[in-house]
Amino acid sequence: MSWSVTEAELVRRAAAVVRETGVEHSLQTVSSADHEVLRRVQAEAAGSLARLQAAHEALLAPSLEPVQGVVLGLKRFAKRVVRKLVGWYVEPRSAAQREFNAEAIRCANLAMETTRQLSDHLLSTEYATDVIRWFKPQFAVELAALREQSAEQADLSRRLLTRVNASGVEIERLADQLPALYERVGVHSAGPVGFDYAAFEARFRGDRATITANQRHYAAQFGPPDASGIVADIGCGRGEMVEILIAVGHDAVGIDSDADMIAQCEGLELPVVRANGLTWLDEQEPGSLKGVFCAQMVEHLVVSELERFVEAALRALRPGGILIVETINPRSLFALANHFFADVTHVRPVHPETLRFICEQAGFRETLLEERSLHPMMLRHGLDSTEQTGAAGDDVINLIRTVFGFQDYALKAIK
Questions:
Q1: What is the 3-state secondary structure (H, E, C) of 42-95?
Q2: For 261-319, how does the pLDDT look when each residue is reduced to its tens digit (9 = 90+)?
Q3: Which residue of 30, 67, 120, 209 is surrounded by the most CB atoms within 10 Å?
Q4: How far apart, in whole angstroms, are the C-alpha atoms of residue 187 and residue 199?
Q5: What CATH number labels 206-414?
Q6: Could you state, in order of their start, the residue ranges of all structural domains in the chain?
């Protein structure tokens, strides 16, 4: 069977479809018209494949017409003679024809499979296009809403930024006015001082040896040194009390917010923490401390801070724990004039009965008051006891005690 022009053209077109659709075309750009072309090519390729297979079978097994008798024998003999004579020429071409036909069939099969896959992909693409076309209006609505929200958010952000900037300016203005406000209401100590406060205390309160001598007797108030628990010195200053407590066997720690004071304590290798004393107490576990001590510190606090300090100490102390507060005695006019008002960081004096009341209201079960640091004038006149009277009369003695009375007091509160 000879290879027809129509069939050769069909194979060429199928190969072209494979090449073009596999390399040069994108599935996303295939149109409905292209789909029809692919279907037509697929149908033609199917017809060509059938014809090629028939021709291939004919070449491999040629059919002979049935003949009878002597004629059959002669025909067979003649064919054998002719085959031998022309076989050297015909057989190579016949083998080449069969090989060509087989390759053509494989090519047609490839074209059929390719068109089938393209058709499947085309259907998928059309389905996706329909889905996108269906959702597109909804997407447009959502996109418009998002754009509107984005514009609103941007406008809100701009307005908030403007307000924040304005607030920053206002805060700076208030910060500039705050020191003057503190001065006006009498709590200017809330602002930091510019001078060396450690040097100030050394001059107006006393040197280290003097403070150590005055505070040494407090150590025994916290019970046996070998009892477990920590005694915290709030506002420890130069660390005199911390050093005393450690020397007698207590576990102790000092808390102060002044960097110079902390540096002096660290120079003596004392256990200290630089922190706000009220904040530090608030952070302690309830019932974790054996004792809390503070000397000449509560006069630096406003009333709300004083109440917070007492409540925080009560919470941090274990049952039976001790709070000892030492401060300037406002019942001594000499102490007020010469000690309280000399320190510009003092806020207000704390009356001993006021402090006792605050401790009792907070929940301490017992309070004990001790007045200390008797003025030398009282000793010279033998007025070191409240039961004594002098020749000048009770009124004069009371006046002297009011002016030159005990300069400090200590309140001991027991949980």
A1: HHHHHHHHHHHHHHHHHHHCCCCCCCCHHHHHHHHHHHHHHHHHHHHHHHHHHH
A2: 999 999 999 999 999 999 999 999 999 999 999 999 999 888 888 999 999 999 999 99
A3: 30
A4: 22
A5: 3.40.50.150
A6: 5-147, 206-414
